[in-house]
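User: I've been trying to design a sequence by hand for this structure and keep getting stuck. Would you show me what you'd pick, starting by listing the structure so we're on the same page?

Assistant: Good idea, let's start from the same input. This is the structure you sent:
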C-alpha cells in the first residue's frame, strides 16, 4: 500500500474535480489486515480518533489518510480543499482507474475533493461506496480547513510582528469589565518575537508620571464616556516595576471598540510607541539652542556695552575736560565769572548728551517705539562730521558731506539715527586707516528715493570680503580683526524700528557703500 499524502499550499488556489468514476455494483474489498476495522462505523471512529488524538495537525491528518487509503483498498488517498493544493499528487495524472469525489464544505470553504489512486475492483464501485467515501472524507476536509486557517493566522501574525518591529509599535487591549490590560510589543530582548504581559488598569496609571496622569486620565475617561471617538497623548511611564527605574516617553492612542446595549464601554484597544530617544534628541537640541541663545545674548550685551562705552566716552571726556579746566582757573585765580559759567554750561550740555545716549540705548534694548521727532538728515550729517573730525584726522581720512538738493526730513529718535550714522562713518574710517591707498575719503550723500530719504556712506577702502557680505547683518559677522560683529546688527535693528532699512549696495576693491534709508516726513521740519 502506498503512502497517502497532503500538503498545505499557497492561499487562494482552488482545486477542481477533473474526474468522477462510474458507479458500479460492488463495494471495495475489505482490508485483509487483522487491525483493519470490521465495520464502517469502527473505521470512522478510528479516523476521528486519529484526527483528534495528536497535537500535531499535519501528523494527525497523515495518519487519517493512511487509514482512509487502507479502508478503501487504494494505493494512495489525497484529500484537498480550496487553498490547499496537494503537491504530493502534483504532476500525477488522474486515470480512469482512479476515483474522485467532491465534498461539500461550509458556505465559506467551497468544495473539497477526495481521490483514490488505483483502488482495487474499481469496476465494483457503488453509490453506497461513494457516499461512505464522502462521509469519511468530510472530517479530513474539515481538519485541512482548520490547518489552513492556522497557517493563515500564523502568516498574519508573522506579518503583524514584522510590521510592529519595523515601526517599533506595540498594541494594548483593555478589558474594562475585569480591568485587565494586555500589552503586546516587539521589544522582547531575548529575540523570541512578541513580548506579551498583563497588568491591571489601576497599575497602568500608577506607573504613569503623576504630572502626565493628571492630563492623560481625563483624556481616556472622555473616550470611555463617549465624549470623544479616540485619544492620543505622550506620557511618561516607568521602564520597569522598580520604583528607581527611569521614565520612558510613550506615545499612545486608542479608542473604545465595544460597548454594551446601554452604551457603557466594555473594551478599548490602541497602540503605543517608545519615543524616548526622539524626546531626548529634541531636549538636547532645545538645550543646545538655549546655550547658543545665551552665548548670543552675552555677545550682544558685550557689544552693546562696548558701543555704549564708546559713545559715552566723548561727552564724558569733554565734561571732564571743562570741569578740570574750570578747577585750574579757579585755583590760579584767573577765572572770571563768565568763564566759569560758560564752562559749567558746556559741562551740563555734555552731561545731558551722555544721559540721552544711555536713555536711547535703554529704549533700543526694550524694543520700544522710537521718538517721532522731525530730524533733518542734512544737518545731522554735519554734526556727525564734526563729532568724528578729530578721529578721522588722526587716521588721515577726510569726511566729505555732499550738498543736499532739498530738505531731507524724517521722523524718529534723532539720537538713535545719529548713532547709526556715527557707526557707519566710524567703520569707514577704520577700513581706510589700515591701508596705504590714496585718497582716503568718506563721502556722505543724502538723496530722495520715492517715499524714503537715503543716506549713502561711501568709502575708498578695500571693500568687504564676499564671505562676509551675505551675513553682514547677522550676529558675530565682521570684517574687522578685533570687531565684535554686532554693531551693524544693532544699526539694522534701529533702521527696522524706524520703518526703514540698512543695506550694503556696493563693495569691491574701489570701496564700499552703505545705504541707510528712512521714511520721508512730508510735513517738514517743525
Amino acid at each position: 500500500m502506498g503512502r497517502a499524502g497532503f500538503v498545505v499550499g499557497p492561499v487562494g488556489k482552488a482545486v477542481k474535480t477533473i474526474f468522477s468514476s462510474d458507479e458500479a455494483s460492488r463495494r471495495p474489498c475489505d482490508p485483509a489486515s487483522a487491525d483493519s476495522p470490521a465495520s464502517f462505523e469502527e473505521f470512522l471512529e478510528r479516523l476521528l480518533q486519529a484526527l483528534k488524538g495528536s497535537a500535531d495537525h499535519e501528523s494527525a491528518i497523515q495518519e487519517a489518510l493512511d487509514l482512509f487509503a487502507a479502508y478503501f483498498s487504494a494505493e494512495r488517498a489525497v484529500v484537498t480543499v480550496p487553498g490547499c493544493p496537494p503537491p504530493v499528487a502534483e504532476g500525477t495524472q488522474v486515470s480512469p482507474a482512479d476515483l474522485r469525489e467532491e465534498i461539500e464544505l461550509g458556505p465559506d470553504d467551497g468544495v473539497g475533493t477526495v481521490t483514490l489512486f488505483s483502488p482495487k475492483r474499481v469496476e465494483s464501485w457503488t453509490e453506497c461506496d461513494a457516499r461512505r467515501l464522502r462521509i469519511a472524507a468530510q472530517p479530513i476536509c474539515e481538519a485541512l480547513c482548520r490547518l489552513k486557517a492556522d497557517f493563515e493566522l500564523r502568516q498574519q501574525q508573522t506579518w503583524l510582528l514584522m510590521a510592529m518591529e519595523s515601526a517599533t509599535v506595540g498594541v494594548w487591549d483593555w478589558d474594562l469589565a475585569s480591568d485587565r490590560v494586555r500589552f503586546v510589543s516587539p521589544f522582547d530582548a531575548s529575540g523570541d518575537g512578541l513580548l506579551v504581559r498583563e497588568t491591571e488598569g489601576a497599575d497602568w496609571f500608577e506607573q504613569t508620571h503623576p504630572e502626565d496622569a493628571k492630563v492623560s486620565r481625563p483624556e481616556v475617561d472622555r473616550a470611555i464616556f463617549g465624549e470623544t471617538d479616540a485619544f492620543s497623548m505622550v506620557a511618561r511611564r516607568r521602564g520597569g516595576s522598580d520604583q528607581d527605574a527611569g521614565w520612558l516617553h510613550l506615545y499612545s492612542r486608542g479608542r473604545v471598540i465595544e460597548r454594551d446595549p446601554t452604551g457603557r464601554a466594555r473594551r478599548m484597544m490602541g497602540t503605543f510607541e517608545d519615543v524616548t530617544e526622539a524626546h531626548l534628541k529634541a531636549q538636547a537640541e532645545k538645550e543646545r539652542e538655549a546655550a547658543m541663545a545665551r552665548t548670543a545674548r552675552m555677545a550682544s550685551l558685550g557689544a552693546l556695552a562696548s558701543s555704549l562705552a564708546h559713545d559715552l566716552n566723548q561727552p564724558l571726556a569733554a565734561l571732564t575736560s571743562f570741569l578740570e579746566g574750570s578747577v585750574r582757573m579757579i585755583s590760579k585765580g584767573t577765572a572770571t565769572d563768565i568763564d566759569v559759567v560758560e564752562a559749567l554750561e558746556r559741562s551740563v550740555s555734555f552731561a545731558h548728551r551722555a544721559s540721552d545716549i544711555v536713555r536711547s540705548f535703554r529704549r533700543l534694548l526694550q524694543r520700544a517705539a522710537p521718538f517721532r521727532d522731525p530730524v533733518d538728515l542734512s544737518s545731522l550729517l554735519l554734526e556727525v562730521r564734526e563729532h568724528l573730525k578729530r578721529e578721522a584726522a588722526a587716521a588721515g581720512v577726510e569726511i566729505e558731506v555732499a550738498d543736499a538738493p532739498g530738505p531731507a526730513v524724517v521722523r524718529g529718535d534723532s539720537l538713535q539715527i545719529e548713532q547709526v550714522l556715527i557707526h557707519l562713518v566710524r567703520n569707514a574710517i577704520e577700513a581706510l586707516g589700515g591701508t596705504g591707498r590714496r585718497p582716503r575719503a568718506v563721502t556722505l550723500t543724502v538723496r530722495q528715493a520715492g517715499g524714503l530719504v537715503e543716506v549713502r556712506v561711501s568709502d575708498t577702502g578695500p571693500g568687504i570680503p564676499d564671505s562676509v557680505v551675505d551675513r553682514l547683518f547677522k550676529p558675530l559677522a565682521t570684517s574687522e580683526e578685533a570687531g565684535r560683529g554686532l554693531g551693524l546688527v544693532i544699526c539694522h535693528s534701529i533702521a527696522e524700528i524706524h520703518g526703514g532699512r540698512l543695506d550694503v549696495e556696493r563693495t569691491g576693491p574701489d570701496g564700499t557703500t552703505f545705504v541707510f534709508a528712512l521714511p520721508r516726513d512730508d510735513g517738514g521740519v517743525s
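That's my pick for every position. To get oriented when you compare it with your attempt: The chain is about 45% helix and 20% strand. The first helix runs from residue 40 to 52.
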